[in-house]
Amino acid sequence: MRVRFNITGIVQGVGFRPFVYRVAVRNSLAGYVRNRGDAGVEILLEGEEQSIQNFLRDLKEKKPSLAQIHDIITTTLPGKNEHKRFAIYKSSKETELSGSVIPPDIAICAECLQELRDPKDPRHEYFFITCTNCGPRFTIIERLPYDRENTTMHEFPMFSLCQREYTDPLNRRFHAQTVACLTCGPKAYLTTSSGEHVQHSDPLREAGRLLSEGTILAIKGYGGFHVAASATRDKPLQALRKAKHRRAKPFAIMARNLEGAKSFAEVNSKEEALLSSYARPIVLLNKNSEYSLSELVAPRLHNVGVMLPYTGLHYMLFDRVDDTAFVMTSANPPNQPIVKENDEALKTLGGTVDYFLFHNRKIAYRCDDSVLRVHGTRQSFIRRSRGYAPAPLMLKEKAQRCVVGLGGEMNNTTCVLLENKAFISQHIGDVENIETRVFLQEATNHLIRLTNSRVDTMACDLHPKFTTTALAQELAEANGWSLIQVQHHHAHVAALMMEHTVDKLVGIVCDGYGYGVDGGAWGGEILFCTRKSSEFKRLGHLEPQPLLGGDMATRYPLRIAAAMLSKKVNVEPWLLKHSGKLLHGETEAKLIVQQLEKGVGVTETTSCGRVLDAVAAVLGVCYERTYEGEPAMKLESAAVKGKDALNIKPVIHGNMLDTTQMLNTVFENVGKTSTADLAYSAHAYLARGLASLAVEKALETGVKTVGFSGGAACNQILAGIIWRTVENAGLKFLVHEAVPPGDGGVSFGQAVAGGFFQF
Ligand SMILES: [Zn+2]
Ligand SMILES: [Zn+2]
């Protein structure tokens, strides 16, 4: 019998061809296997029918753990058998199949780690040790098919050892495109901040020693540069904060191992599994009572972002030092993508760091670390990037259209929806300037190319002035795609609906800002959503509150607090007392009071983020937002040990949850009740209020499911209380587990709205 299988899925870069080779040989089959230009794999088999059946069974049951088979297209071929044996053929350029993709970057596997540590192994202490089961993939592949010459490894021709293993069917590195060794592979080296080589026989251990001693290093990894420093010394962290203009934004850290992480943070079994998974994301862990890292790592927060080493290089940094952890934060200039080129690093980071730990392998595509948080047994993505992108989310239904969702403005990603697969890009960032816009466009094109998608629809935000809206219009016009615009919070609900395959949902969406259907600033919404966009309705929202001076109000939460309080009390004495926390002190405080009296320069917002900001200011938890979400994050940290001491009854006027009364009650109790209890009570009020309103609307409209999305859904106190309230009312509660609830999930929401909803 002669038969051809064309396989789509994640089948390149995961050891699939060597696996197929072994299974074919074991079943006495002749023929070949080869990679295709569309990221799929073609197999031709000649032999007994029973052997082919056995082959297929093994293919499905024993496939490499990183491989995903989406589809097997079988063609029985006429004619005589032509092959005497089975072989791996040179890749073909064929590209008519869609929907396959390359895998994400994979953390160093246990076998490679053992070899790294084994003095008898030829790759002992070689930082770039990889095999068919591990190493960079997404960030190393320049074009398809996945062959060495199409990766940034093409600059490193294999010598004897690597060549031998690469061509040995029984070896773990048989056809491993990233195979390299001390002799033939990439080299690491140290330089000063201005790029002068520092001669050292052991640059990696030396880098670890330098970090331990208090110097700051930029370290090149798989998908970009990290800036690294000691996690226990204040001095380098102060210097780093000053140089990076990051006064308070938490730094991620890399712990030497799991035990190390447990010495300063609480780690439950779910968190342990995530930390150790091949994706090796940053997991937000609660600091424990023995927390002894510098307070400058994650100032005034109850948790800290921790990851474990994921490359040989990372492991070696810890070899000669006692440090439990190093700060390891993405190196990106303000509002720009993570740095990936050596020259670029010297230029943009030279003023910040003392040394560079470079290597001479190029990064094809940049990719930041992923960030997750665990709530009970559920995971919640704060950022879905390295280790996850570009692997698709498998949906239960197939879309009729092939859609690109270009996302919104902040924390952006891009998404390609093809049938039942949603390919969400790596983290792009805030699309405010030319660099991120270019990155977004490149990432979109790359994703379309990798998946060989034939796009017909472009989806973007409703905001008329977003960079992404303009780019979407441009691309749609240039390519002849139809264009749909999806309201920001509508996209959040759509994401939740299609992640869980529901037809109807009452969604609570809480975040900082989204352009509303009425042009207003939305952010604390209760929305009704079905698969007909004409049925999308705003059922309820938070009380609109005055936003005094636009962006200034977001940066200085005292402004929104003053505006909210002024509805009930004379706010002047309080504001004057805290005027030192405003940019222009007393003058500004007086101006604010005047503006409030006259109602000048005031727009309104229903944002949940701004209400949390106001509470943070009233409680003195945070007066200035130096990074996105800072006041709300600090407020959650302040509330963690609190209880619902005030138990304020939700005040609901029609479709609106009052927030003025709540803030005033909190204000009146400052000094009488602990900050923790007040912070918790404010959370409890918002959560109970929004959940009650959503439950009431769900019962009215006959909807059985209530969901919670938006950036504030990462807040565990809000999410926990809403969850209990909804389930106590006998309704089903949904949150995101596979897609970020924040704006990193908007591109997916837009794409699924475009693919599954009637517009
Ligand atoms: Zn390996
Ligand atoms: Zn070699």
Summarize this entry quickly.
With 759 residues, this protein is α/β, with parallel strands linked by helices.
Explain this structure to me?
The protein is α/β, with parallel strands linked by helices. Helices cover 33% and strands 20% of the residues. The chain contains 23 helices and 31 strands. The strands form five sheets. The chain has an eleven-stranded mixed β-sheet with strand order 7-6-14-8-9-13-10-12-11-15-16, sandwiched between helices. Helix 13 (488-500) crosses helix 23 (746-756), helix 18 (608-618) runs antiparallel to helix 21 and helix 19 crosses helix 21. The two termini are 49 Å apart. One zinc ion is lined by residues 109, 111-112, 130-131, 133-134.
Secondary structure elements and pairings:
Blueprint: E1 2-10, H1 16-26, E2 30-35, E3 41-46, H2 49-61, E4 68-76, E5 86-88, H3 110-117, H4 160-166, E6 188-192, E7 197-198, H5 203-213, E8 217-220, E9 225-230, H6 234-243, E10 253-255, H7 258-262, H8 269-276, E11 282-286, E12 303-307, H9 312-317, E13 325-330, H10 342-349, E14 355-359, E15 371-375, E16 378-383, E17 393-394, E18 403-405, E19 415-418, E20 421-424, H11 434-451, E21 457-461, H12 467-479, E22 482-486, H13 488-500, E23 505-515, E24 521-529, E25 537-542, E26 545-548, H14 551-555, H15 557-565, H16 572-577, H17 585-598, E27 602-605, H18 608-618, H19 630-639, E28 652-653, E29 656-657, H20 660-669, H21 675-701, E30 705-709, H22 716-728, E31 732-734, H23 746-756
Parallel strand pairs: 2-5, 8-14, 10-12, 11-15, 18-21, 21-22, 23-30, 25-29, 30-31
Antiparallel strand pairs: 1-3, 1-4, 2-3, 6-7, 6-14, 8-9, 9-13, 10-13, 11-12, 15-16, 17-20, 18-19, 19-20, 23-24, 24-25, 26-27, 28-29
One zinc ion is lined by residues 109, 111-112, 130-131, 133-134.
